[in-house]
Every structure is written in C-alpha cells, then in structure tokens.
Write a structure and sequence with these properties.
Number of helices: 9
Largest sheet: 8 strands, antiparallel, barrel
Number of domains: 3
Distance between the termini: 68 Å
Number of strands: 9
Structural class: alpha+beta
Order of helices and strands: HEHHEEHHHHHEEEHEEE
Strand order of the largest sheet: 1-2-3-5-6-7-8-9
Strand content: 15-25%
Helix content: 40-55%
Radius of gyration: 25 Å
C-alpha cells in the first residue's frame, strides 16, 4: 500500500523546521540586543575608598529582562513559548579585587521552557496533520475496506504516531542545535555559554581602580560586534569616577543606576 499521506506530512514537517529556525534566529537577535543594551547601560558608569567585592545593578537587571521578553514576543506565535518563563535574569556585574575591575555582561535562557514548547509544537503539528487529512484518510481507508486506524497502521507502521513524530528533529537534537548556536554566538562575542544552566556572559571591560581618586581607568575593552554595535566609544585610558557609600556604588553621570554589593 502506498503511503499517500507522506508528501503532505513531509511538507508540514519542513514548515515546522523553518519555524524552529526562525525561533533560533530570534534568540540570536535577543542575545545581540541584550549585549548592546547592557553595554550602553555599562557606559553610564563612564559618563556618569575601597570598593572590593561584586557589585550589581538591580534596576538595570530588571529593565534588561523586560527588553528580552518584549523582543521575544514578536515572531513566535506558532512556537508557543511564554517569554516570561524563557527569558531569565540579565545584568552587569562589576567585580573589584586587588584594585582590578572587571565588568561582565550576562543573561540567561530557561532551556526547559524552550524544550517543553518544542515538544508541544511537535504534538500540535501531529494533531494538525490528522485533522487536515482526516477526510482523505477515511476515503482511502474505505477503498481498502479498512478502518482509519488500520489504514494508518499499514501506511506508517503499528506505532504510526511515533513514526510521524520521528520525522521531526528530536528534542535532544533541537537542544544540541540551540546549545551549539549559543556557544558560537558567545565565542564570537569573546564570551562563554553554560550549556547546563543556559547562562551566557562576556567581559565588557577591565580596568585599574584607584581608591585614592575614587576612579577606574579602563585598560581593556570587549571589541566584539554585538557589544560595539551599541555605538559607545569606550576605550582604554578612559576614566570613570565613582562614589561609594555603604552598600551602594554610584558613578558620575549614572546616578539613576546605583550598584549594590552582591552577597
């Protein structure tokens, strides 16, 4: 018996694969935008004695997460994922140790949420195919004197549902594709990606701290395209002036973004 349902099924699978690719492209766009926006926010501390420790900006972190959520909401209508669940925390950490400063940009994605949505997409696609071909399947089955169930089993195998779904990349393959994409993107940004946690980060700049003058002199800058696309002309030799009071660290020109010591 010819498997006459295979052509429309294959076409549907290919369309869903394209949707998967579009979701991954959206994720790439979010990464680039977050790094650029974080870089802009980090520049406030340039335009804006002892501060040893890790400092982070709670207000900035919340704003950055909302930016990522807003960007992800466009273009993922069929890939049903909740941006609030997928987009994790984002921010800028300033670590001071031995009068050395390192500013690190970071963000994270919830891969479990992504994989749940991918599995649901496959399930929806399978049900969609059955609905769209129901009349044709019943007619074909009747010609052979079979029930619809028996016809599907003869066309695709006893476990026809699994056979149909097997045409899609497995969740493991999709996760590997996602991880490989993230790892490459972060390598291009001189950063790192943790496949287990879904967190990605990149050093924005390094500098020398002067407790006497309450300043940080930039010694090294991340020159990757996503970071430099922010349009910020931060360069080695630039000086940032800070004010330290208790657990709060502010920079001249960026008082609206106070940093808090991380516990």
């Amino acid at each position: 018996m010819e498997r006459q349902q295979l052509d429309p099924l294959t076409e549907m699978v290919e369309n869903k694969k394209k949707k998967r690719k579009s979701v991954l492209k959206i994720v790439l766009g979010i990464i680039g935008s977050l790094l650029a926006v974080i870089a802009i926010a980090g520049f406030f501390i340039y335009q804006n004695g002892n501060i040893t420790g890790k400092w982070e900006n709670p207000s900035l972190a919340a704003e950055l997460r909302q930016i990522g959520i807003h960007q992800f909401q466009s273009g993922v209508d069929e890939f049903q994922i909740n941006p609030e669940e997928f987009v994790g925390k984002s921010g800028l950490v300033l670590e001071i140790k031995d009068n050395k400063a390192v500013a690190t940009l970071y963000a994270s994605f919830n891969k479990e949420s992504l994989l749940d949505s991918y599995n649901q997409m496959i399930e929806n696609a399978y049900n969609e195919f059955l609905r769209e071909t129901e009349q044709e399947t019943e007619q074909e089955a009747e010609q052979y004197g079979l029930s619809k169930e028996a016809f599907l089993k003869q066309s695709f195998g006893d476990n026809y549902e699994a056979q149909m779904k097997a045409l899609f990349p497995t969740p493991e393959q999709f996760e590997r594709e996602f991880d490989d994409m993230m790892a490459k993107q972060m390598a291009d940004n001189h950063g790192q990606y943790d496949r287990v946690s879904g967190k990605f980060s990149a050093v924005y700049f390094e500098g020398e701290v002067s407790p006497f003058t309450h300043s940080i002199t930039v010694t090294k800058i991340n020159s990757s395209s996503d970071v430099t696309s922010s349009g910020i002309d931060l360069k080695p030799g630039d000086v940032m002036i800070y004010h330290h009071s208790g657990d709060t660290l502010t920079f001249i020109g960026g008082e609206q973004y106070p940093f808090k010591i991380k516990n």
